[in-house]
Design brief:
The protein is of the alpha+beta class. The chain contains 7 helices and 16 strands. It has a single domain (30-440), classed as paralog of FGE (formylglycine-generating enzyme) (Alpha-Beta Complex), CATH 3.90.1580.10.
């Protein structure tokens, strides 16, 4: 669990993952927080620093009840991204987004509102490919996202932090075909004895004034309410659960039995980095991740094309039904799914949208694309900004998330769209955040 998060307690609920949806979790309650006097304010702040950044959703245009929007003159957002949306620089022009969303960019402009063609490098895959990894040839492409509002399944959010569209060049690299699985992460832990952030008992010095009994290891779990709620307060569907960690993603009563091929979750940024180091790999940069997800295409809305459900086919594990009450599993999965259940993209990668969020190496800055647009185009191998900045919580150290998760829905979060960005406080994991690794073209042999 992340710093200051142990004090964060929220209302109880049901964990929302396949096979465990009806199991009651026992998190600390808001009533307990109020009874303790000091705890409730800490809880609200602590989870806003960790949980909200894991959620990565924006609410704009007014608070919403699942399935409908309520209009208010001054909407109040319950998410950090909603605040960022209001405070970060906005584009005064809403670009038209067609079904193709592809156009040539003006080469004299470092940042634009259109997509240029993707130019794949001609370098062939090196010999001796690593196991279960896919060669990404590198090349030049347009990175970012147009305003998706008004598109089918486009959702309510303008995605301003993914503009202007910028031209970027990346070198070739290897990428895991899927997210790292529970079986793979277990092998790492067995070999090294590694203890994840969520499994560590918090230190008293990190939580001044917290009673010792509240300093318990745990993590954040999706806990859907039983009835419709206004979608302006994430505490209604997230709970801090003592004992939740990668071995027990929904809490102590859950396990990984039969889920060896599911993506590992409840991992913080440093946990993902530790695995990468052991495996002789690394986390992808945000630019590498998007280049790989696009699969050589230019400007597509999704990793598979420009229709959310081509010919009625589900292409990713997302949320169906009334959010956040119940995932109706029309795509075949209520909650998290095993890796590799949907079609590959043109590069041969799977699960580049939905299922679980994926950590990237970059710091998150709301104005990063504006920074990139001031550099010589194309920007070669960008590694992310030098520091972090989210206008909603500028002191919080956040990293980029990409890809969306099984909780993404056009009612609340549409970051299954390929150019969109997520963000997460780096010491916080949840049951919808995982990762995948990359390797440079010339790297030492893997450790496993």
């Amino acid at each position: 669990m992340g710093k200051k998060k142990s004090a964060g307690k929220s209302n109880s609920g049901k964990a929302g993952a396949k096979g465990d949806q009806q199991r009651k979790v026992e998190p600390f309650s808001v009533q307990q927080s109020q009874a303790s006097g000091w705890l409730l304010p800490v809880a609200m702040v602590a989870l806003s620093m960790g949980l909200v950044w894991a959620l990565m959703t924006m609410v704009s245009g007014g608070p919403k009840v699942a399935g409908k929007t309520q209009t208010k003159a001054e909407p109040t957002s319950g998410s950090d991204a909603g605040q960022s949306e209001k405070q970060a620089s906005r584009s005064k022009e809403t670009p038209a987004v067609g079904s193709a969303a592809v156009a040539k960019s003006n080469s004299s402009e470092p940042g634009t509102s259109t997509f240029g063609p993707t130019q794949l490098a001609s370098n062939p895959a090196p010999d001796n490919p690593p196991a279960e990894m896919v060669w990404i040839p590198g090349g030049e492409f347009s990175m970012g996202c147009l305003d998706p509002r008004g598109l089918p399944a486009g959702g309510p959010d303008a995605m301003n932090d993914a503009r202007p569209i910028v031209r970027v060049r990346v070198d070739g690299f290897w990428m895991d075909q899927t997210e790292v699985t529970n079986a793979q992460f277990a092998k790492f832990v067995e070999a090294t004895g590694y203890v994840t952030v969520a499994e560590r008992i918090p230190k008293a010095e990190d939580f001044p004034g917290a009673p010792p009994e509240n300093l318990v290891a745990g993590s954040v779990v999706f806990s859907p309410p039983e009835n419709p709620v206004i979608l302006d307060n994430h505490f209604q569907w997230w709970s801090y659960v003592p004992g939740a960690n990668w071995r027990h993603p929904l809490g102590p009563q859950s396990s990984l039995a039969g889920k060896e091929n599911y993506p590992v979750v409840q991992v913080a940024y440093e946990d993902a980095m530790a695995y990468c180091k052991w495996a002789g790999k690394r986390l992808p940069t945000e630019a590498e991740w998007e280049f790989a997800a696009r699969g050589g295409t230019a400007g597509n809305i999704y990793a598979w094309g420009n229709e959310f459900r081509p010919d009625g086919k589900w292409m990713a594990n997302t949320f169906q039904g009334q959010f956040p009450i119940r995932d109706t599993a029309q795509d075949g999965f209520a909650g998290i799914a095993p890796v590799g259940q949907f079609s590959t993209n043109p590069f041969g990668l799977q699960d580049m949208a939905g299922n679980v969020w994926e950590w990237c190496a970059d710091w998150y800055r709301a104005d990063y694309y504006q920074q990139l647009s001031q550099q010589q185009s194309p920007v070669p191998n960008p590694k992310g900004p030098a520091d972090y900045w989210d206008p909603a919580e500028p002191s919080e150290a956040k990293r980029v998330h990409r890809g969306g998760s099984f909780l993404c829905t056009d009612q609340y979060c549409t970051r299954y769209m390929i150019g969109t960005r997520g963000k997460g406080e780096q010491s916080t994991g949840t049951n919808h955040i995982g990762f995948r690794c990359v390797r440079d073209a010339q790297s030492p042999p893997e450790q496993n």
